[in-house]
Design brief:
Distance between the termini: 51 Å
Structural class: mainly beta
Largest sheet: 4 strands, antiparallel
Strand content: 35-45%
Order of helices and strands: EEEEEEEEEEE
Shape: elongated
Number of strands: 11
């Protein structure tokens, strides 16, 4: 029996951003994957995914491209940084897909 991937249902951070310094790009950039209800990557998805700071508290998230279209179901961001020191999580959204939230990270 073969396993087929279901329709796109949710977004998941397969790589959360690393801690950094205010205004300096994260050493580890976020990667968001479009998944079906079972957590399988939907490799046919080119969904536009938008990253935002879950609770911005006045801070600004800057990325080279945001929103960014997935390639084969995966969005690898570049140049993302946050300007103010605090501990944050990022939220990924795309249309009706269930949003994904990153692990927390600290900006100093």
């Amino acid at each position: 029996a073969s396993i087929t991937v279901g329709p796109a249902a949710k977004l998941a951070f397969t790589t959360s951003p690393s801690s950094s310094t205010g205004g300096v790009a994260f050493a580890t950039q976020p990667v968001v994957t479009v998944q079906d209800a079972g957590g399988n990557t939907v490799t046919t998805s080119t969904a536009a995914v938008t990253l935002t700071i879950t609770t911005p508290a006045g801070a600004t998230l800057t990325c080279t491209t945001n929103p960014k279209n997935a390639a084969a179901g995966v969005d690898t961001y570049a140049g993302c940084s946050i300007n103010l020191a605090n501990t944050y999580t990022l939220t990924a959204t795309s249309g009706i897909l269930t949003a994904g939230v990153s692990l927390s990270f600290t900006i100093t």
